[in-house]
Amino acid sequence: MLAILFFVSALLFFIDFAGKIPQGVHALLHLQIVPAILSGAVGIMAFQFILVLVFGRLYCSAICPAGILQDAINRLFCIGKKKSKGVRRFSFRKPQNLLRYLLLGATAATALAGFTTLLVWLDPYSNFGRIAANLFRPVTMWGNNVLADLLTRMDNYALYHVTVHTVTTAGLLAGLLALLLFVGLTIFRGRLFCNTLCPVGALLSLISRYSFFRISFDEQLCNRCGNCERTCKAEAINSKQMTVDTSRCVDCFNCTSSCTKSSLKYRFRPPFASGKPSAEKPSSGKPAEAPAAGKLSSEAPAASPSNGRRRFFATGATVAATLPVLSTVAQYADLPEGEKPTEADNIDYERLPPVTPPGSAGLERFKDQCTGCHLCVVRCPTQVLRPAGLQFGFDYLLRPYCKFESSYCNYECTVCGEVCPVHAIRGLSKEEKRTTQVGVATFNISRCIVHTEGTDCGACSEHCPTQAVHMIPYEGTLTIPQVESELCIGCGGCESICPVRPYRAIVVVANREHAYVAPPEEEEVKEIEIDGFGF
Questions:
Q1: How far, in Å, CA of 58 to CA of 50, rounded?
Q2: pLDDT band at residue 283 using 50, 70 and 90 as cut-offs
Q3: Contact of 370 with 39, CB cutoff 8 Å
Q4: Residue 423 is part of which domain span?
Q5: Domain total in the chain
Q6: Are 454 and 468 spatial neighbours (Cβ–Cβ below 8 Å)?
Q7: Residue at which a domain ends, from 180, 213, 246
Q8: SS3 for 24?
Q9: What CATH number corresponds to the domain at position 399?
Q10: Is the alpha carbon torsion for 463, 468, 473, 474 positive or negative?
Q11: Do the beta carbons of residue 405 and residue 68 sit within 8 Å?
Q12: Comparison of pLDDT for 137 and 352, the residue scoring more
């Protein structure tokens, strides 16, 4: 029930294109471990680590949406399987400790050095977000359109057509790659992603091996039928040795429900009871000796520090030492052909940074904090945020930016800062939002139709909420735009409405560090007493 609560809430919040889900649901997503670490939520981190220490890796089976998605894939794959053969035919395998702890160390070291690309690709919550935002949401919107057509034929107009604006090629490929990875690993190796590739799973494994509540064998009752081992999708149960690797166990309880003798139970078994933390024993192929009467077997003895662990720490130190070199590799790529400027421009467009969302404070901070979960993308009311491809460099891949091609950033909207679980986008008040300058509009007279066609326009001025863009006399009765940079907040209202194609006459040039402007002066409201009828 906990898994259903967290998974369904998170999934609906991502695919909700009609704005029906309450905004407060995003609080559940703040419980994810990577967002809590990046946002400095000490209370949430302490709660999660204590939860793991007491109950084991319940986070992986009941809170993490990526883990629950893998369980759902496993259930779907089990449809039609005969119960006599078990739900799935998994088998115990030795943990890939060198690989999982090496990935954990590399992810942590690179993130601390400000190069979060590895974390973006391995964070389970962010991968789920990209799957939900770029695959499940468009499919839901397509289903809505099909149903709307059917209802329209019956003169029922309860539903209406919606258009997908927020999915980019990079976002679609990233979501598809993550889903295929989950499906492939789940079908062939169960929770291999969680116990080998996932840095969150590796971090929790360091704590869960000392958990107070754990699954353990009663050797007097066990007949070594192997049902528990075949149903353990974490591949953590050795039925021959009657051991459970609690560092990999995700507390799904498939093993306890498949045990016909009730010899496998989830119980209070703190590691200090026997003075030995739980770990797996190497399989010798021989059955374990029966314990004394009335005595339960303890888990496997603690393993001594392995050479793999030593290599892990040595490799982690090497990676950390080479990070300054790696961080200089990513450079801004050229803009796509359709966005290259004409010779009349005096701006180096090929080196322009992306316009980051209001509240992100600046480009470098946003790259360090954002994990590309795309929650802000799907919750943006004006759909101005889009996942980036490689046009801004590899180190900005999949992170959202403001694309003013057909939309703009609402003058008083603060939704992206409210829902961001990692606080890469800080929550702004409406007053702060109205004065935060993410960029400055830049006018190119050689493209403006007032100059090229000798006709009136003024659309950019009409859509500027701060009147930073206003019209001044040009030729005869014509007026032409002029930008007051000290008033502009870079909302993109002018760029989105500019009728010039394919190149806009006015574009927003991003600030690498966000600035603040004085609020526009409000007109004095005169109180008028109305006599009589009021007309």
A1: 11
A2: very low
A3: no
A4: 337-516
A5: 2
A6: no
A7: 213
A8: helix
A9: 3.30.70.20
A10: negative
A11: no
A12: 137
